[in-house]
Amino acid sequence: MRASGEPVLEVDDLHVVFQGRIGLGAGILGKKAAEARAVDGVSLHLQKGEILALAGESGCGKTTLARTIMGLERPQRGTVRYQGRSIWENLRAYRRRVQMVFQDPTGALNPRQTVYESVAEGLRIHRVGGDEKEQVARALANAGMRPPERFFLNYPHELSGGQRQRVVIAGALALEPEMIVADEPVSNLDASVRGEILRLLLKLRDELKISILIVTHDLGLAWTVADRVAVMYLGRIVEIGPAEEVLARPLHPYTKALLDVVPEPGGIDRPILAGEPPDPTRVPPGCRFHPRCPEVASGRARTAGVEERCRAQDLGLVELRPGHFAACHLAALGARGDRATGPAEAGGGVTERSQTGDGPARPTTAVET
Ligand SMILES: Nc1ncnc2c1ncn2[C@@H]1O[C@H](COP(=O)(O)OP(=O)(O)O)[C@@H](O)[C@H]1O
Ligand code: SF4
Ligand SMILES: [Mg+2]
């Protein structure tokens, strides 16, 4: 295990709601805009030197969660703690230690700034001091731009997409961050360049011990780089655990559906999921995935006797295997069955860590909440 010690980042019961826009006519008629529950009760942690991939379809709240972790959105409820302290206590210091890398390197770079100026910008904003030229060169070299001096005077349009993303990463590295939040850092890049940038992220973790939260809609990418994977659906994490566990032995039907379509080299596949794409202004009751769940549609949930709970009973994450949590009535039933027939174990139950609660993990034999 590369990651160790106490968590550096602790997110607890986070809720971010966006007020919907409403037309003038509807406003006069007294109609209220629908609220979008973009992040709807998320708890997670990140350890030093760990890469956590946050995966899920477009619109499930990944960017909102990442932005809230960065202190760019104010949550309505919940906390984000970094090294034990709320990020809101000293946002400026936090923003220096934790850097964000966005999806689109072209948009992130000022076309009129040279590579040198772009990388030096953060150093100047945070008044870091010291030998700026040396710091810029080191950041560029760490981001794989070698020899760095060769790129100092280049403008973004003179670089390839991969080089531009390296410059963005160098801008983050210049501040010697302890954590990087990368939102879809390779999704705008050619397949050939993606591998290079991913190898770079792995190198940063291994050599600089940087913790990385990488947002992606691509589970194949999570497979390549992550120590742990969190799968998000409609504002919630529905499964989280060690990458090889979640990706090779998924427990949640949503993760299974996403994995059925991990893109093949050269092909762009989409998840084959029935029903409407999720809408955070209309979160279904019960398990929020139930209108699209293949287990419900196929009748397997009914046969197992959980369908009513699927439709009516909301549930948090439950530890079904060591370190591997899922929010699914059916999977929990399966795990209990495994344990009943498996080797004797103290309590014989599963462990629940409520996604919306704020306490530590508590053992329970019942999954129902
Ligand atoms: N500033 C905003 N105002 C209103 N709704 C928003 C805003 N930002 C995001 N949303 C909505 O929140 C949901 C989650 O969006 P987002 O976090 O961008 O998801 P993802 O990154 O997973 O694609 C979407 O339905 C989106 O339309
Ligand atoms: S709780 Fe029910 S509806 Fe939700 S994912 Fe599990 S089987 Fe499907
Ligand atoms: Mg996004």
Protein described:
With 369 residues, the protein is an alpha/beta fold. The chain folds into two domains: 4-22 and 33-233, P-loop containing nucleotide triphosphate hydrolases (Rossmann fold), CATH 3.40.50; 284-364, no CATH class. Helices cover 34% and strands 23% of the residues. The protein is built from 15 helices and 14 strands. The chain has helices at residues 24-28, 62-69, 91-97, 105-108, 115-125, 132-142, 161-173, 191-208, 219-225, 243-248, 253-259, 294-297, 300-303, 307-312, 329-341, and strands spanning 4-19, 35-48, 51-55, 77-82, 85-86, 98-101, 179-183, 211-216, 228-233, 236-242, 317-321, 324-326, 350-353, 362-364. The strands form two sheets. A ten-stranded mixed sheet has the order 6-7-8-3-9-10-12-11-13-14, sandwiched between helices. β9 and β10 form a beta hairpin. α6 (132-142) crosses α7. The longest helix is centred in the middle third of the chain and has 18 residues, at 191-208. The protein is globular, with a radius of gyration of 22 Å.
How are the SSEs placed, and which strands pair?
Elements: E1 4-19, H1 24-28, E2 35-48, E3 51-55, H2 62-69, E4 77-82, E5 85-86, H3 91-97, E6 98-101, H4 105-108, H5 115-125, H6 132-142, H7 161-173, E7 179-183, H8 191-208, E8 211-216, H9 219-225, E9 228-233, E10 236-242, H10 243-248, H11 253-259, H12 294-297, H13 300-303, H14 307-312, E11 317-321, E12 324-326, H15 329-341, E13 350-353, E14 362-364
Parallel strand pairs: 3-8, 3-9, 6-7, 7-8
Antiparallel strand pairs: 1-2, 1-4, 4-5, 9-10, 10-12, 11-12, 11-13, 13-14
Helix pairs in contact: 5-6, 5-7, 6-7, 7-8
The structure holds adenosine-5'-diphosphate, iron/sulfur cluster and magnesium ion.
